[in-house]
Amino acid sequence: MTTTTRIVLAERPVGEPKDSDFRVETVDLPEPGPGEALLETLYLSLDPYMRGRMSAAKSYAKPVEIGQAMVGATVSRVLESTDDTVAVGDVVLGYGGWQTHSVESTSYLRVLNPDALPVTTALGVLGMPGFTAYAGMHNIGQPKAGETVVVAAATGPVGSMVGQLARLAGARAVGIAGGAAKVAMLTDEFGFDAAIDHRADDFAEQLAAATPDGIDVYFENVGGKVFDTVLPRMNLYGRIPVCGLVSGYNATALPDGPDRMGMLMGRILTSSLLVRGFIQSEFAPTQMATFLSDIGTAVANGSIRYREDIVDGFDQTIDAFRGLLTGRNVGKLIVRVAG
Amino acid sequence: MTTTTRIVLAERPVGEPKDSDFRVETVDLPEPGPGEALLETLYLSLDPYMRGRMSAAKSYAKPVEIGQAMVGATVSRVLESTDDTVAVGDVVLGYGGWQTHSVESTSYLRVLNPDALPVTTALGVLGMPGFTAYAGMHNIGQPKAGETVVVAAATGPVGSMVGQLARLAGARAVGIAGGAAKVAMLTDEFGFDAAIDHRADDFAEQLAAATPDGIDVYFENVGGKVFDTVLPRMNLYGRIPVCGLVSGYNATALPDGPDRMGMLMGRILTSSLLVRGFIQSEFAPTQMATFLSDIGTAVANGSIRYREDIVDGFDQTIDAFRGLLTGRNVGKLIVRVAG
Fold it and tell me: Domain total for chain B?
């Protein structure tokens, strides 16, 4: 009998998740049944959307129940397989969640090739975050040569891909990040045309200077102050793919007024803006294969770059997740669990 | 020398337009130059967008300047023509504005056939309002059979077309209007599946009962309380074409808080909503001809119905316009100026 050590939701967090909102427990795993595999987690992914799963509010996916293990993508090694689609020793992308071992349906697993690229890329640049950027730009943002694309959290796995895809389309890429080190990374490492620190007192003036022709695409993944500053600069027929609003994920109440909801609708009307929320899973069935092929090649040959922030040790998971919500990580946040 | 009596903007209205915001004046018109025609206004169109033109706020079109005549579509008779595209006696659709006579470029004029349909239809069901509904549904709303479409101001020329196009697509059409007479008209005259009075105390409950499967398309032309009530009922992948926000056009300040702008973005995200502002002129170059042909046939054979509210006398223009912003009219509001 194999056991797993897992982090379960003990209470729904109010505001920033506290240690006491979780419980670490070690339990027996069932034997893998037909079509299942027993996996050892090597790396687990931490992503902003997980904050939503901790909440009972209506969202695009069911919340994690109290007492259930937190969900999430994992890179794991196959310990036992009942099925010839994965073999013992294979390294696979799965959805094991915040735990050291898991039993999963083999139909959800994708075998990775550790000789091609680091297997952690399946959680970031070549995983859900990278595909989120790709799907949002391909289907909604659709930048044209000469246009201006703005993205926040731009050193993250979504934002850095957005900027690089904008550049590949011939658009001007403007990245927003917090702190001098991240800002420098945007131009030096990811090739953004301009980079701005959202913590700067003159953030609005810097954004105006960096977007002299206005903004055609704002890829929304943070919300809050950045959105407030971007909105007045959106051009006629601007597009706003909305894949996340991380700045508000810990919010416990609506901000004080005045109520700007009607103002936003007014801006959408007067500038013929397109605002479209999306989750990458909408586009994965039809576009993931092309993404993996095209972007996989670009990552392998270095024409698309990425950065990972790998935290060592399963016991660091909760604290690392808190840091993700406040921008402490630099690049795609991953916890090394084993291997 | 021909004179025109015209209504010019004397001051920018604050809140509801007052008589003193306008000035009626009679001035000489220039002789029509090459490519121009002298026109006598038969009917002038009153439309909600005109409130925006009275304001200096940034919008999709330049504001009317102080001292300039109010703009707008007109059906006119040709008194003099310098050009063989229009002949003396022709009845034409033009853009003469709030005045009794005008000199216009013939390139903007469309000759109407008074024997086919009433010429006033060129201002409503077969004009800008009807095409607004058509373009928004065709390009953004895209209702599918079995889906639910909701529209407010539903006895108006945009809303009544939205409902009828929804029905033609096999969707369930739910109309919102103010007052029992208008509500009855929605089902009896325009064929809506359900109709609701937004003034009812239990408006939210009525809307829920009328949309048991949620809302797939909300055609936004009013904003305010209706939008607040519709938003929580939007389905996954719902579409919101935004062509107007008439309920807020007289507003002088943002409403009191809390600030729901982030909440709206959150709803867009979690339900993968599409919100798209548009002005019909974006689509007119490519789709107006098809609209005039297809919808013209449908109006002529009675499969699409329309209602007009024709006010008699140029001196009624300002008061009629005020009524438009508060829903006093029933159907497309037109002022009969002559003829």
Answer: 2
Residues of chain B in contact with residue A218, where contact means CB-CB under 8 angstroms, are none
Residue span of the structural domain in which B166 resides: 128-281
CATH number for position A22: 3.90.180.10
Q: Do B263 and A261 touch (CB under 8 A)?
A: yes
Count of CA atoms in the C-beta half-sphere (13 A) of A266: 21
pLDDT digits over B148-172, tens only? Answer: 999 999 999 999 999 999 999 999 9
Question: Given B244, B261, B277, which is nearest A261 (Cβ)?
Answer: B261
Select from A260, A272, A277 the Cβ nearest to the Cβ of B60.
A272
The whole-model pTM stands at 0.93
* Three-state DSSP state, A298: helix
- Does A251 reach chain B within 8 Å, measured CB to CB? yes
Residues of B in Cβ contact (< 8 Å) with A256: 257-259
What is the rounded (10 degree) CA torsion for A160, A162, A163, A166?
160
CA–CA dist B92, A212 (Å, integer): 43
Same domain, A209 and A75: no
Q: Are strands B172-177 and B194-197 parallel, antiparallel or unpaired?
A: parallel
Instruction: Please answer yes or no on whether B259 and A263 come within 8 Å at the CB atom.
Output: no
